[in-house]
Design goal:
With 186 residues, the chain is α+β, with helices and mostly antiparallel strands. The protein has two domains: 9-130; 138-185, no CATH class. The chain is 13% helix and 26% strand. It contains one helix and ten strands, in the order βββββββαβββ. The protein has one helix spanning 107-131; strands at 9-13, 20-23, 38-43, 49-52, 59-61, 69-72, 85-90, 151-157, 172-178, 183-185. The strands form three sheets. Strands 1-7-3-4 form a four-stranded antiparallel sheet, covered by helices on one side. The longest helix has 25 residues, at 107-131.
Amino acid sequence: MTISNETASITTQGNGSNKDFAYNFEVPYQADGTTVAVNVFTISASGVWTERTITTDFTITGVEDPAGGSVHYPVTGSALAAGTYLVVQRALDYVQGTALEDQGFRASSVEEALDTLVMQTQQLVARSLRLTLDACTVAQLPSSDTNIGTRGMVTDATATTYASIVAGGGSNIVPVYSDGEDWRIG
């Protein structure tokens, strides 16, 4: 197998009716062969992240499928409301489980180990991009709808009110975060 997709996570907004959320990247099993290597979170309208539990809170299809699958959330109860989000992240443990012995070359073992390394690297890149941005002006911020959870610092905010939508043109230096729709002070 090869890894041709750079995606390691998706964030989807709820709409009050959808319970099935597609993801387009491989979610493998951990090295134990039974634990699914996935983290699923919901993000409230106020920006609070809550980790969800497989089987109890959600189910997943497409495990080990390079094309992805879907997460069904919640297992019971109402669909995710508009203004809230579901995050699906590949979450491989950072271990090296391949042991090569001097009994001949097994290309499949090497390829599997390399695929795991690529997926782990993608996870690190996705998490580092989500966490922080360099200081910039409001106009230089990337799109908020594709950067939910990302934090940064702006140098030209007009206000300092926590959780308010940030506007440029002022002289305040404030931390900001993306809620998936807007950049907010905080």
